Structure formats: C-alpha cells, structure tokens
C-alpha cells in the first residue's frame, strides 16, 4: 500500500506543531522520520493514526483520499502503530491484549481461540516466540514490543508506524527488532520508523525525511553521513564525536556500599549496590529505563525513605541526611526530569540559578536576599553557559528544553563540587545542546570532580564514561571499562553478569581500572 501525506498541518491554538508536511511511503519501504524531540514527528504520526485531526492537508492510500475519525478507522484502513509507551494491559494475557477492541464472541462469551491461533502463526512466521497465554506484565520489554507488533499484524496492517521503537530496548533487542523490520518489508509491509538515533536510522532506512520545528527540512539516503543528518536536524554544523583526554584519577572520595531501597510492597528496586568513584573520573550507569537508576540517584541525594547501606563522600556519611545537607556537602545534582525536579517554571532564570543557595552569602543579606548579587550571578552564568534568553528576568518555563537544561547545569556547576551527578543529562535536547552538555560534564571531570552519569542512551554512556556500571532489576551486573563491546554491555543490560557476558561473546573481561588509593577524608579545593 502506498501512503502519501500532502500538506499536513496541525495547529493547537496559536501553536503550529506540523506545517505543510509532504511525505510518501512506498510499499515495502522503511521510511525513517528523523528529528529531535519536539520536532513534530509524533504529532504527525498521531494525525496519520487518527488520534488527531489535521488542520489542513490530505492523507491518501493508494491514491485515494481518506479521513480517519479515530484509530479504529486507521486500523481498518491498514495502518497500525506501536507507540513509544506501549498500550498494553499488564494483567491481561497476550491473547487478551491482542483481541482487545477486536473481540469475537461465541454464545455471548469471549472467544480467544482464533486469536491464539493467529498469534502462533505470526510468531512462527517472524520468529517472535510469543506465548498467547503469557501475562503481559511478566514479559520482558522486548517481547512486549513484539506483542504490539502482533496486535497490528492481526488487523492486517499494511503500514506499520514505530514511534521511537528502540528507546527501551537493549542493543540485542534493537538488533532483533531491525531484523524483524527487514522481514516485514520483505513481505510488503511499509514501515514508518520514527527516531532521533542516527546510527539506527542509517542502518534500517530506505529513505530518510528530516523534520525540524514542525516542517520538513530535507530528505536523504541512508548513505548520508551522520554529520550531514545531524546538521539537517539542528540547522547548523555540529560535532558528534566527543574528544576527551584520558582521565587523571586522584583519590577515591565517593563510595557506595550495599545500597538498598525497599518499597512499600516489600520489593527492592535497588538491591545491595556497591561502587566507588575517584576524583577525575566518570562512572556512567547503563541500563534499560526502570531498572533502579532513578532510585539510585534519589537515594544518594536523600530523597527516599527505607534506604540502607552506606554512602560516603570525602569521609562524610550522607545516608540519612537531608537533601539540603547532601547538597551542602558538595553534591551537584541534575535530575532526570528538569521541569518537575530541576526548575521552578514561573520563577525567573536568575531565581532558578540560586534555588539551592538563596539563603547563603553572597545571595542572602541578613534576613533578606541580595538582588544585586543574584543579578550578577545570573548575567555571568547566562553568558558562560550560552543560555538563549532575552532577559535574566524571563520565566524559565519560557525557555526551550536545551536552554532549561543549561540553567540547571549552570546552577549545579557554579560552586565547588565534591561530586557531580547527572541523570539523563541530555534527554529531550537537540544535537547542538547535547554537544554543549557533554563538553561541560567532561570539563567538570577534568577539574578533578568525581562524576556519576545515569543514562538510558548507550551511545551517550560510551562517549562519556571512563568506566561503565550496568544495572538490571536493581542489581549491579558489573563494572567494566568504557571500551567494552556493545554486545557485552547489551547482555549485561539483559541480566548477565560481566563474567557471563564476556564468556558469551568469547572475549576476556576489560582490564580493571588502575589501582587507586583508599578513600580519603580530604578533598582538593
């Protein structure tokens, strides 16, 4: 089936999310829609899937204009969609999820026999290995994604939309998905692959369309270089390769021992995690989202109850102390959600830059604040961190995501630190902002600060890390060197220990980090 979008525009009030977009997807083609977060890719696909009605423009299938009042109409026309956040009910079986919305009955009762048979047929055809009677909540993330694909194929989808399909997958699961896409297109199914990951787009695409700020800014073949594609995405030349010197490790001043978080239901989202970080090195935590990374950073910062173990920074025990005390001990923290935990939207940029120091000199004067000092600080940091704003008095909520992240970074890096923690430091940022954030993180490392990075983007982990700690279901699978093969890291992200993973790929474990002096109570000034 040939899909054509002609002049699709979608407005939400005064905001234009998509403007006059033209797109053609040929039968059996993988057409990649490439763009940064917020570029309008998902909005466009939601229009195609019937979730939104276009303000202007047409959708044509095999040359015939069609109108979708909702997803049911799109599915009936042969369009299926696998959302970035799966639309599955965990307590239902695979068969029940697949049948949902397309139920067949016998004698007034739900008849799943035909659905089970069809699931087995599709699983055998594409090597999915999905049990129709398994509870979805018990399945790994990669298998849940296959269930979503089965849902679309059961309804005879001729065009399959995959929205950021690798965001929650290990490298092995990503490779398996790309192989499945190859099988689907060989059978004549068209695939619209939405992503911001250049490496994957180049690997899977037959054709690439780049969207920036809601408009099509260019098309490319998979042979285009990543630099060319990145430049199209952001509108200027950018460097995709982070250049950094070898770490100059000092004393081991940050230590975590048997850190455990117990939830209200008795489970342990973080279970007996131990590691050290030396001055002047980056330890990056890799893992699929939801495996305890959030609990790790929040436990260190003092945000969680029911935490046991030990957290030592320059000889000071942090466990059990308040967030204010932890920050006062020299910890800089960039949270994974800047809008919820990192900034106060209605406050000005200047005010956000002193959120954790408003009551200390020079920003406090007696029982009041010192506006002149706050203003000077803001002017200096806005210039140093290249925050694009008309005024330091502007509400931080008016800034773009990249500039908001720069404000968080500027605040956390504007004082001497004994530990810097950044969780998902570039989530939602364009390539240019990512380049800036990465440089600042490495600059802080080179000043001799221990750095802890948490990221679900494996490419980012590999670029920033001096060592990589892999976490799975709240447990540490091992700590390896940054040059560890992606395949090995992927096995660890799926639950293999470091030793098991190296054994499976037939190579020896990475050389351990050089011996370092024992933790020291002092710290460079």
Automatic annotation (TrEMBL):
Keywords: ATP-binding, Cell membrane, Membrane, Nucleotide-binding, Repeat, Translocase, Transport. The keyword RNA-binding does not apply. It comes from the Bacteria. It holds the Pfam family ABC_tran. Its main location: membrane. One of its GO terms (molecular function) is ATP hydrolysis activity. Residues 503-525 are annotated as: Disordered. Residues 3-238, 254-498 form the ABC transporter domain. It is a peripheral membrane protein. One of its GO terms (cellular component) is plasma membrane. InterPro entries: AAA+_ATPase, ABC_carbohydrate_import_ATPase, ABC_transporter-like_ATP-bd, ABC_transporter-like_CS, P-loop_NTPase. This is Heme ABC transporter ATP-binding protein. It comes from Tersicoccus phoenicis. The lineage of its organism: Bacteria, Bacillati, Actinomycetota, Actinomycetes, Micrococcales.
